[in-house]
Write a sequence for this structure.
């Protein structure tokens, strides 16, 4: 399978400058350190040339990808599968069933992606054989260090005795590369300053709040954006919860996301954001990087970021892959612009009246069965189109997890669909189906 065929699966006709540079670097016998902004296409950049290194005749793990978060592991797995290479990939991370992962390893994947703690667990338990691993990718390595995974990564890398290539990626420049990575003779590709198209596509504006009601100002600003996709960033969970409560009072449909939520609730929120069921997300910096989130039009810094890196990661959620986007700094009377802000933001005024955002035209259907129940997307499409009597354009994005599935359906059709399929079966099994909460 050639690059053009794979790129067509992503509606891309050619590699961007950074992706081409990574592809070229893979052809040389050196390690690679890639510094490139969030949203510039790093995942595809290292997965594409990795395909050329895989051997169909080897029945063991050949490529190991270590990531700091479960969400990033899932994203890489989804991108790899979308490439349609025919090679198997498995994903492992904390919060996921160890038993399911062990069962998956009965037929080892060519590529394994996971978080440091879970990969270390499988190595120590001898659930995986890593003697054939020739390529190591440390994705979002700076975040793995921030999360305190140095010991786990050091243990894993020490076990890899037959590495030919090591690849390290980061959204921000590194002060130094730890010795335990084993990276030597490296080709460093730094696109943080060279990616001018990405930087110029981002507008930064500020809104100065008169008085002390910053939350009311946020409501006014959100209303100004209409139905446009928006992420509001906070520094703390309690701020996320407080904003969410206020939005609920005003009956403004939204999602919220932070580390205090159960994993399944975090997954459902991201699924709804991806399929368009929600277009407003309130979150901590947990959602600033490493997540499969679609193009966002507006980013609001409700609480100012503490460092330049955090600012970069938050803003990276908009103006992705050369698209336009706007980031707003919401400032009260005591706030000063961050000293690391490189441009002076344009001042913008707030509207006088609160405008309630219209709810999304999509809602999400929950199906209590997934991949481990032998359910696939086509099974769901068949049921919803034929039994649910949906027409073209009324069924949106479908995501199938291990034991559950989610389908976006036009809001004005979902009640009728539920009535039509309430007694239906999938694969001759009666399955619980309802509106995703």
């Amino acid at each position: 399978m050639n690059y053009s065929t794979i790129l067509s699966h992503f509606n891309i006709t050619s590699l961007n400058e950074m992706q081409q540079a990574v592809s070229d670097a893979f052809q040389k016998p050196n390690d690679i350190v890639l510094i490139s902004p969030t949203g510039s296409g790093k995942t595809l950049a290292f997965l594409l040339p990795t395909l050329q290194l895989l051997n169909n005749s080897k029945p063991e793990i050949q490529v190991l990808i270590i990531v700091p978060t479960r969400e990033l592991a899932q994203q890489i797995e989804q991108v790899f599968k979308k490439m349609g290479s025919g090679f198997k990939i498995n994903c492992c991370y904390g919060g996921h069933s160890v038993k399911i992962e062990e069962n998956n390893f009965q037929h080892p994947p060519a590529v394994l992606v996971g978080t440091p703690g879970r990969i270390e667990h499988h190595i120590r338990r001898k659930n995986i054989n890593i003697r054939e691993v020739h390529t190591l990718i440390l994705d979002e390595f700076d975040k793995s260090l921030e999360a305190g995974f140095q010991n786990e990564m050091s243990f894993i890398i020490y076990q890899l005795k037959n590495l030919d290539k090591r690849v390290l990626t980061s959204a921000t420049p590194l002060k130094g590369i730890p010795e335990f990575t084993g990276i030597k003779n490296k080709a460093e590709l730094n696109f943080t300053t060279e990616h001018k198209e990405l930087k110029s596509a981002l507008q930064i504006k500020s809104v100065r709040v008169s008085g002390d009601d910053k939350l009311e100002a946020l409501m006014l600003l959100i209303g100004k954006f209409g139905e446009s996709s928006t992420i509001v960033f906070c520094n703390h969970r309690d701020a996320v919860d407080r904003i969410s409560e206020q939005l609920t009072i005003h009956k403004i449909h939204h999602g919220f996301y932070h580390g205090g939520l159960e994993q399944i609730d975090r997954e459902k929120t991201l699924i709804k954001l991806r399929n368009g069921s929600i277009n407003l997300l309130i979150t901590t910096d947990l959602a600033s990087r490493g997540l499969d989130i679609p193009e966002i039009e507006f980013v609001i810094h409700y609480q100012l970021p503490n460092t330049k890196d955090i600012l970069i990661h938050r803003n990276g959620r908009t103006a992705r892959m050369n698209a336009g986007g706007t980031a707003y700094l919401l400032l009260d009377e005591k706030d000063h612009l961050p000293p690391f802000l490189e441009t002076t933001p344009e001042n913008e005024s707030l509207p006088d009246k609160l405008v309630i955002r219209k709810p999304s035209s999509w809602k999400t259907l929950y199906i209590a069965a997934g991949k481990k129940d032998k359910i696939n997307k086509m099974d769901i499409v068949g049921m919803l189109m034929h039994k649910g009597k949906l027409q073209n354009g009324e069924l949106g994005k479908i995501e199938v997890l291990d034991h559950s599935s989610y389908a976006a359906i036009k809001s004005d059709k979902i009640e009728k669909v539920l009535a039509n399929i309430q007694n239906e079966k999938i694969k001759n099994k009666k399955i619980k189906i309802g509106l995703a909460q």
Q: What stands out?
A: The first strand starts at residue 31 and ends at 35. The radius of gyration is 23 Å. Residues 369 and 375 are 7 Å apart (CA to CA). The domain at 362-435 is CATH 3.30.70.330 (Alpha-Beta Plaits).
